[in-house]
Amino acid sequence: MRVFITGATGFIGSHIGDKLHEMGLSIMALKRANSDMSNTLEFKDNTVWLNSEVPNWREEVITFKPDIIIHSAWIGVDSVSRDNWQDQLTNITFLYDLLYIAKKCNVQKFIAFGSQAEYGVLNKIASEDQPENPVSSYGAVKVATHQIAKTFCCQNNIKFFWLKLFSFFGERESKKWLIPLMVNKIKNNISIDLTEGEQKYSYLYIKDFASKIGELVLANIDSNDFIISSNYSISIRELVTKIRDFVNPGCQLNFGAIPMRTNQSLVIQGNSSKFESLFGPLVMSDFNTKLELTIRYYLSLEDK
């Protein structure tokens, strides 16, 4: 089986790349000329890499004839870019390239990733039938991407899977995201100003998610949309305190020193029962163990 994956050098995509390699699948991946390859060490040498800045990259993918496309790339995921319409809309143009390839190759499956941002502000557990109400250009373009890709795949007899992703943690996350950022600041005994930390996030370990994607790649099921969210939630206050207590118990955490941002969701969790009915539970009963592994990983990076 041949798989073409975008975003393979990133946090989510690289872990999926690891899993695809472990499964013995043939992999082709797209990257930029200056992409950092440090996340891809497990599968780099067994992957056909394409430069997205070369004009004929689409033709190269068509020659590879993938059976499955996994679309993990997205321009503008950081908080600064999430309301930049110009950045966000470039994702639609890129989507067209992928759909063109999918049709030319008559791929079996097109797997793409959405976001909890499609629901907008959340103050309760999101359900599959909850109306979408994005409050950012990021969320709005995710909604549009979903509808475009779903309609296209239906018209061209391609199985389409849209996964609305909630919160993940684990190795290889960008240093500007919460857990690696907190590890670095706490290790260096930097006093940290925070909100009250009441927001509750349903964190799922990234390697567990990658394993589920491996199952979806092989599964003989019809097109579907799924929420992907852990059933275990933790407040930001509790999470950051756990990191502090493990890394440097003397570091000062100033909860309530800064206000919560506008349109901040308080419950970032979804009901994954539809996905779990097919692929088993998305549980985090061993959250503390996996959090410790993650913290040790980021501490080891800082020591290098």
Can you describe what's shown?
The chain is globular. α1 (11-22) crosses α6 (206-218), α3 (85-105) runs parallel beside α4 (137-155) and α5 packs across α9 (287-303). It has two domains: 2-168 and 203-228, Rossmann fold (3-Layer(aba) Sandwich), CATH 3.40.50; 171-202 and 231-303, UDP-galactose 4-epimerase, domain 1, CATH 3.90.25.10. 39% of the residues lie in helices and 19% in strands. The protein has a seven-stranded parallel β-sheet, with helices on both faces. It has a three-stranded mixed β-sheet with strand order 12-9-14. The protein has helices spanning 11-22, 57-64, 85-105, 137-155, 178-187, 206-218, 236-247, 273-279, 287-303; strands at 2-6, 26-31, 47-51, 68-71, 109-115, 159-165, 167-169, 192-194, 200-201, 203-205, 224-228, 234-235, 253-255, 267-268. The chain has 304 residues and is α/β, with parallel strands linked by helices. α4 links the parallel β5 (109-115) and β6 (159-165). The model has no long low-confidence stretch (mean pLDDT 96). The longest helix is centred in the first third of the chain and has 21 residues, at 85-105. It starts with a strand and ends with a helix.
The total count of helices amounts to 9
Based on Cα principal axes, name the global outline. globular
Question: Which architecture of the largest domain per CATH?
Answer: 3-Layer(aba) Sandwich
> How do the helices and strands follow one another from N- to C-terminus?
EHEEHEHEHEEHEEEHEEHEEHH
- Enumerate the spans where pLDDT stays under 50 for 5 or more consecutive residues: none
Multimeric status of the protein:
single chain
| Percentage beta strand | 15-25%
What name does CATH use for the topology of the largest domain?
A: Rossmann fold
From the alpha carbons, calculate the radius of gyration and give it in angstroms: 19 Å
Helical residues, percent:
25-40%
Strand order of the largest sheet: 3-2-1-4-5-6-11
Number of separate structural domains: 2
End-to-end CA span: 38 Å
Total DSSP E strands: 14
- Helix/strand class: alpha/beta
Give the name of the CATH superfamily of the largest domain.
Answer: NAD(P)-binding Rossmann-like Domain
Mean pLDDT across all amino acids: 96
Q: State the major sheet.
A: 7 strands, parallel
CATH class of the largest domain: Alpha Beta
